[in-house]
Write a sequence for this structure.
Protein backbone atom coordinates (compact mmCIF):
# COMPACT_ATOMS: atom_id res chain seq x y z
CA UNK A 1 0.00 0.00 0.00
CA UNK A 2 1.23 3.53 -0.77
CA UNK A 3 1.72 5.62 2.36
CA UNK A 4 -0.28 8.86 1.89
CA UNK A 5 1.86 10.55 4.56
CA UNK A 6 5.06 9.72 2.69
CA UNK A 7 5.93 13.25 1.65
CA UNK A 8 9.64 12.61 2.07
CA UNK A 9 10.32 9.99 -0.57
CA UNK A 10 10.96 7.01 1.70
CA UNK A 11 11.23 3.59 0.12
CA UNK A 12 8.01 1.60 0.05
CA UNK A 13 9.78 -1.73 -0.37
CA UNK A 14 12.69 -3.06 1.68
CA UNK A 15 16.18 -2.67 0.20
CA UNK A 16 18.66 -5.51 -0.11
CA UNK A 17 21.22 -5.89 2.67
CA UNK A 18 23.26 -6.57 4.55
CA UNK A 19 23.87 -3.20 6.20
CA UNK A 20 26.22 -1.86 8.84
CA UNK A 21 23.21 -0.97 11.00
CA UNK A 22 19.55 -0.05 10.81
CA UNK A 23 18.12 2.94 12.67
CA UNK A 24 14.50 2.50 13.73
CA UNK A 25 11.79 4.88 14.86
CA UNK A 26 8.10 4.42 15.61
CA UNK A 27 5.11 6.70 16.00
CA UNK A 28 2.19 5.71 18.22
CA UNK A 29 -1.53 6.40 18.09
CA UNK A 30 -1.93 7.08 21.81
CA UNK A 31 -0.10 7.04 25.13
CA UNK A 32 -0.13 3.24 24.92
CA UNK A 33 3.36 2.10 23.91
CA UNK A 34 1.91 -0.78 21.89
CA UNK A 35 -0.19 1.49 19.65
CA UNK A 36 2.37 1.69 16.84
CA UNK A 37 0.96 3.42 13.76
CA UNK A 38 4.15 3.97 11.75
CA UNK A 39 7.57 2.36 11.57
CA UNK A 40 10.48 4.12 9.93
CA UNK A 41 13.83 2.53 9.12
CA UNK A 42 17.12 3.95 7.91
CA UNK A 43 19.53 1.47 6.36
CA UNK A 44 23.20 2.47 6.65
CA UNK A 45 25.98 0.83 4.64
CA UNK A 46 29.69 0.50 5.46
CA UNK A 47 30.35 3.59 3.34
CA UNK A 48 27.77 5.68 5.24
CA UNK A 49 25.16 5.82 2.49
CA UNK A 50 21.57 5.79 3.75
CA UNK A 51 18.17 4.65 2.49
CA UNK A 52 14.95 5.25 4.41
CA UNK A 53 11.80 3.15 4.52
CA UNK A 54 8.40 3.95 6.03
CA UNK A 55 5.26 1.89 6.59
CA UNK A 56 1.90 2.79 8.12
CA UNK A 57 0.22 0.44 10.59
CA UNK A 58 -3.37 0.12 11.75
CA UNK A 59 -2.99 0.24 15.56
CA UNK A 60 -6.44 -1.27 16.06
CA UNK A 61 -7.31 1.36 18.63
CA UNK A 62 -8.41 4.98 18.75
CA UNK A 63 -6.00 7.80 17.96
CA UNK A 64 -5.42 10.41 20.66
CA UNK A 65 -5.80 13.96 19.28
CA UNK A 66 -2.42 14.98 20.71
CA UNK A 67 -0.61 12.18 18.86
CA UNK A 68 -2.36 12.87 15.56
CA UNK A 69 -1.50 16.55 15.82
CA UNK A 70 2.12 15.63 16.49
CA UNK A 71 2.71 13.23 13.59
CA UNK A 72 -0.23 13.88 11.26
CA UNK A 73 -1.44 10.26 11.26
CA UNK A 74 -5.09 9.52 12.03
CA UNK A 75 -7.64 6.73 11.72
CA UNK A 76 -8.36 7.87 8.18
CA UNK A 77 -4.67 7.75 7.26
CA UNK A 78 -4.33 4.09 8.27
CA UNK A 79 -7.73 2.91 7.03
CA UNK A 80 -6.20 0.49 4.52
CA UNK A 81 -2.96 -0.20 6.37
CA UNK A 82 -1.90 -3.61 7.68
CA UNK A 83 -1.89 -4.42 11.39
CA UNK A 84 1.28 -4.75 13.46
CA UNK A 85 1.64 -8.56 13.20
CA UNK A 86 1.59 -8.48 9.38
CA UNK A 87 4.14 -5.66 9.17
CA UNK A 88 6.35 -7.07 11.93
CA UNK A 89 6.59 -10.56 10.43
CA UNK A 90 7.63 -9.01 7.11
CA UNK A 91 10.38 -6.97 8.83
CA UNK A 92 11.49 -9.50 11.43
CA UNK A 93 14.28 -11.35 9.58
CA UNK A 94 15.90 -8.16 8.34
CA UNK A 95 15.75 -6.40 11.72
CA UNK A 96 16.79 -9.45 13.69
CA UNK A 97 19.94 -9.90 11.59
CA UNK A 98 21.28 -6.35 12.10
CA UNK A 99 22.36 -4.09 14.92
CA UNK A 100 19.66 -1.51 15.57
CA UNK A 101 19.88 2.17 16.52
CA UNK A 102 17.18 4.15 18.33
CA UNK A 103 17.13 7.68 19.73
CA UNK A 104 16.19 7.10 23.39
CA UNK A 105 14.74 3.73 24.38
CA UNK A 106 11.11 4.41 23.47
CA UNK A 107 11.20 2.53 20.17
CA UNK A 108 12.47 -0.72 21.69
CA UNK A 109 9.88 -0.41 24.47
CA UNK A 110 7.10 0.17 21.95
CA UNK A 111 8.09 -2.89 19.91
CA UNK A 112 8.32 -4.98 23.09
CA UNK A 113 4.84 -3.83 24.13
CA UNK A 114 3.37 -4.52 20.68
CA UNK A 115 4.97 -7.99 20.61
CA UNK A 116 3.51 -8.74 24.04
CA UNK A 117 0.10 -7.51 22.90
CA UNK A 118 0.08 -9.82 19.88
CA UNK A 119 2.08 -12.68 21.43
CA UNK A 120 4.98 -12.32 18.99
CA UNK A 121 8.69 -12.94 19.68
CA UNK A 122 10.72 -9.82 20.36
CA UNK A 123 13.82 -9.07 18.32
CA UNK A 124 17.10 -10.34 19.75
CA UNK A 125 19.16 -7.64 18.00
CA UNK A 126 21.65 -5.43 19.83
CA UNK A 127 20.25 -1.92 20.35
CA UNK A 128 22.37 1.24 20.41
CA UNK A 129 20.87 4.36 21.98
CA UNK A 130 22.01 7.34 19.91
CA UNK A 131 21.18 9.67 22.83
CA UNK A 132 24.00 8.05 24.84
CA UNK A 133 26.32 8.29 21.85
CA UNK A 134 25.43 11.98 21.46
CA UNK A 135 26.11 12.65 25.15
CA UNK A 136 29.61 11.26 24.76
CA UNK A 137 30.30 13.16 21.53
CA UNK A 138 28.84 16.52 22.59
CA UNK A 139 28.86 16.72 26.41
CA UNK A 140 28.51 20.51 26.33
CA UNK A 141 24.89 20.16 25.19
CA UNK A 142 23.90 18.94 28.66
CA UNK A 143 22.12 21.94 30.17
CA UNK A 144 22.20 23.68 26.79
CA UNK A 145 19.14 22.17 25.17
CA UNK A 146 20.06 18.56 25.77
CA UNK A 147 20.49 15.66 23.35
CA UNK A 148 16.97 15.27 21.95
CA UNK A 149 16.58 15.21 18.18
CA UNK A 150 15.12 18.73 18.06
CA UNK A 151 18.18 20.27 19.74
CA UNK A 152 20.64 18.06 17.86
CA UNK A 153 18.97 19.18 14.65
CA UNK A 154 19.99 22.76 15.43
CA UNK A 155 23.43 21.94 16.85
CA UNK A 156 24.45 19.55 14.07
CA UNK A 157 22.62 21.38 11.28
CA UNK A 158 20.62 18.27 10.43
CA UNK A 159 17.84 18.41 7.84
CA UNK A 160 14.83 16.24 8.71
CA UNK A 161 11.12 16.51 9.52
CA UNK A 162 10.62 15.64 13.19
CA UNK A 163 7.87 13.13 14.12
CA UNK A 164 7.85 11.30 10.82
CA UNK A 165 9.18 7.83 11.62
CA UNK A 166 11.32 7.53 8.49
CA UNK A 167 12.77 11.01 8.97
CA UNK A 168 13.49 10.45 12.66
CA UNK A 169 15.15 7.12 11.88
CA UNK A 170 17.42 8.90 9.41
CA UNK A 171 18.16 11.58 12.00
CA UNK A 172 19.20 8.94 14.54
CA UNK A 173 21.50 7.38 11.94
CA UNK A 174 23.00 10.80 11.19
CA UNK A 175 23.66 11.35 14.90
CA UNK A 176 25.69 8.12 15.00
CA UNK A 177 27.71 8.98 11.90
CA UNK A 178 28.37 12.58 13.00
CA UNK A 179 29.36 11.41 16.48
CA UNK A 180 31.87 9.05 14.90
CA UNK A 181 33.26 11.94 12.84
CA UNK A 182 33.51 14.11 15.96
CA UNK A 183 35.25 11.51 18.11
CA UNK A 184 37.32 10.04 15.30
CA UNK A 185 36.25 6.54 16.30
CA UNK A 186 33.77 4.15 14.73
CA UNK A 187 31.49 2.21 17.04
CA UNK A 188 33.06 -1.20 16.65
CA UNK A 189 29.90 -3.15 17.49
CA UNK A 190 28.10 -1.56 14.54
CA UNK A 191 29.39 -3.67 11.69
CA UNK A 192 27.99 -5.56 8.75
CA UNK A 193 27.32 -9.17 9.64
CA UNK A 194 27.54 -11.55 6.74
CA UNK A 195 26.05 -14.38 8.82
CA UNK A 196 22.32 -13.74 9.20
CA UNK A 197 20.21 -14.95 12.11
CA UNK A 198 17.65 -17.72 11.89
CA UNK A 199 14.42 -16.72 10.13
CA UNK A 200 11.17 -15.88 11.91
CA UNK A 201 9.39 -18.95 13.24
Amino acid sequence: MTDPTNRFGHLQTLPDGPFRFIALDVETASRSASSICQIGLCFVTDTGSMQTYSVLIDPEEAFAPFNSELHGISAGTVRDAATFPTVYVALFDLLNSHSLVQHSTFDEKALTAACARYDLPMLSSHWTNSVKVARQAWPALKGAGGHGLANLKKHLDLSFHHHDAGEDARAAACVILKAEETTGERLSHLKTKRQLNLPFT
About this structure: The mean pLDDT is 90. The chain has one domain: 21-183. DSSP finds six helices and five strands in the chain.
